[in-house]
Amino acid sequence: MELNHDEIRRYSRHLILPEVGLAGQKKIKSASVLCIGAGGLGSPIAMYLAAAGIGKIGIVDFDTVDYSNLQRQLLHTDADVGRPKAQSAKETLHGVNPNCEVVLHNTRITSENAFDLIRPYDIVVDGTDNFPTRYLTNDACVLLKKPNVYGSIFRFEGQASVFAPHLGGPCYRCLYPEPPPPGMVPSCAEGGVLGVLPGIIGCIQATEILKLAIGKGSSLVGRLLLFNALDMKFRELKLRRDPECPVCGEHPTIKELIDYEMFCGIVPQPTEANPDEVTVQDMKKALDNPALGIKVLDIREPDEYEIAHIDGVPLLPMSQLRQRFTELDPNQQYYLHCKVGERSLVAVAFLKQQGFKYLKSVKGGINAWSEEIDSNVPRY
Ligand SMILES: [Zn+2]
Questions:
Q1: Catalytic residue set
Q2: CA dist., res. 213 & res. 25, Å (int)
Q3: How many angstroms separate the alpha carbon of residue 170 from the centre of ligand 1?
Q4: What is the pLDDT of residues 132-152, one digit of tens each?
Q5: Among 105, 80, 89, which Cα is nearest to 38's?
Q6: How many whole angstroms separate alpha carbon 339 and alpha carbon 151?
Q7: Cα–Cα distance for residue pair 196/202, rounded to 1 Å
Q8: Partners of 155 in the beta sheet?
Q9: How many angstroms separate the alpha carbon of residue 264 from the centre of ligand 1?
């Protein structure tokens, strides 16, 4: 592995660092990294790795670019909206450093393809936003003995670590043996995220990758770094490997990849309609015909109501439901809507436990209303 004259000029600020030098830069050039996700975390990770001279970067993403991504996903520009993220990422990275080989995997990582995707790479970096993929990535990396550079973000908080039982540290399951119940932890789409937060956490992940590549410094193996942007505070937790861990412990019970959707309690969407759901068309009928006697309630939060709401639909925020449900009539028929139809299903289940009989959740929420009924209502 040699560096040509252009590369020597390009990486000169690395080459004059004694900790990197020519030998370290050659190690960076010979390293390959699989980046799972080309979104908020994947953007700074892949861009800095390409700029730093990582020889090969694989990008796994099956999604397309949406307007709501542009607030933080700097790999993609306004002109990329609607295009595959993997393709857009490749073009951006080529622009940053044409010497970097970018391999596209325009697919969803699954238990069937995870080993084949990960095996050719030295290091895996987790830029995913959902629990099934996070556990899948963890287990596949443990079983293939690949370092898994982990990061996650939510609202104003983020965390990062390096999971590598083969280097003496714990894995993600040692830290979080069980996934949270489905619906308990809202996604960034439901809960929001500060745009620069993935920039900070992703840069920490990219830093760890470069350190692993050159073999210098103390890595985050065995440590969990916690960051709060509102307080501007970093904290650190020591992590220990759990001898009882089902994948990296003394007596592992997971020796091959499992069904991670099922493990995380995500039930496949039934092909027939959910009996607790109605469509936005049903909601329109209810609003147009008061004689039907159906009341529609918006259970989103006041900030969301201010962004977009449907005229004539009163607000009863989910965060106040436990205190205020007694204001509602348990014998009245209600349709509940939220942003995309996830929280309203949880609210329906809660109210049924309180003795309410005639409740439905509006499938797709106000975003479906905006798409199918009234485009004057903004989507967010
Ligand atoms: Zn473990």
A1: 188, 338
A2: 9
A3: 5
A4: 999 999 999 999 999 999 999
A5: 89
A6: 26
A7: 10
A8: 193
A9: 17
